[in-house]
UniProtKB/TrEMBL annotation:
<dbReference type="InterPro" id="IPR051016">
    <property type="entry name" value="Diverse_Substrate_AcTransf"/>
</dbReference>
<dbReference type="GO" id="GO:0004145">
    <property type="term" value="F:diamine N-acetyltransferase activity"/>
</dbReference>
<keyword id="KW-0808">Transferase</keyword>
<dbReference type="InterPro" id="IPR016181">
    <property type="entry name" value="Acyl_CoA_acyltransferase"/>
</dbReference>
<comment type="similarity">
    <text>Belongs to the acetyltransferase family.</text>
</comment>
<dbReference type="Pfam" id="PF00583">
    <property type="entry name" value="Acetyltransf_1"/>
</dbReference>
<keyword id="KW-0012">Acyltransferase</keyword>
<protein>
    <submittedName>
        <fullName>Diamine acetyltransferase 1</fullName>
        <ecNumber>2.3.1.57</ecNumber>
    </submittedName>
</protein>
<dbReference type="InterPro" id="IPR000182">
    <property type="entry name" value="GNAT_dom"/>
</dbReference>
<feature type="domain" description="N-acetyltransferase">
    <location>
        <begin position="4"/>
        <end position="146"/>
    </location>
</feature>
Length: 156
C-alpha cells in the first residue's frame, strides 16, 4: 500500500510540479513545447506576494465574476503510478473545500476532449459540461460544478 497525504505545495516541489505539467501535456497529446510555464513564473505565481493557492500539485485560483468569486482549477494531475488509490478524489474534495472557504460560488475547470477518463471522473463527482473552450486549442471542454453542502460539488 502506498502512503500519501495532501499538503500545500512548497517551493521545493517546483521541479515535480513542472514535470507533472509536462507529463499532463503529453498525456492529453498537447505538444510539450506548448508548455510555456517557467520555473521563475511558477515561483512568482505560486510562492510570490499574491500566490495562487497550490494544493499538492493542483493549481487553484479565485476569479471575480460580478459579485461572486469562481474557483478555477488549472490542473489536477495524479502520476499514473498512483492512480486508483483515491488521491484524485481527495484532491478534488479539497479543491471544493478551499473554494467554499473562499466564498466561491462554483468551481470551473477544463478537460481535453480526448481525456475520457478525466471527464468520467469529474462527471461522477457532479461536474457537468458547460461548454467548449478554444483558448489552448479546440480540444478542451469546460466543466463546472456548484459548491454546496459542505465540500460536495453538485451538478450545474
Amino acid at each position: 500500500m502506498v502512503n500519501w497525504r495532501i499538503r500545500e505545495a512548497v517551493a521545493e516541489d517546483i521541479p515535480d510540479i513542472l514535470r507533472m505539467i509536462k507529463d499532463l501535456a503529453v498525456f492529453v497529446k498537447e505538444p510539450e513545447s506548448r508548455v510555456k510555464l517557467t520555473r521563475e513564473e511558477l515561483v512568482r505565481d505560486g510562492f510570490g506576494e499574491n500566490p495562487w493557492q497550490l494544493v499538492m500539485h493542483s493549481f487553484i485560483t479565485s476569479i471575480p465574476l460580478g459579485m461572486d468569486d469562481v474557483c478555477f482549477m488549472r490542473d489536477l494531475y495524479v502520476d499514473p503510478a498512483f492512480r486508483g488509490k483515491g488521491i484524485g478524489s481527495e484532491l478534488f474534495r479539497r479543491v471544493s473545500e478551499i473554494a467554499l472557504q473562499n466564498s466561491c460560488i462554483r468551481v470551473d475547470w477544463n478537460v481535453s476532449h480526448g481525456n475520457k477518463a478525466a471527464a468520467d471522473f469529474y462527471e461522477k463527482r457532479g461536474g457537468g459540461v458547460y461548454g467548449r473552450v478554444e483558448i489552448l486549442s479546440p480540444h478542451w471542454r469546460t466543466f463546472t460544478g456548484i459548491c454546496c453542502q459542505g465540500t460536495s460539488i453538485a451538478r450545474h
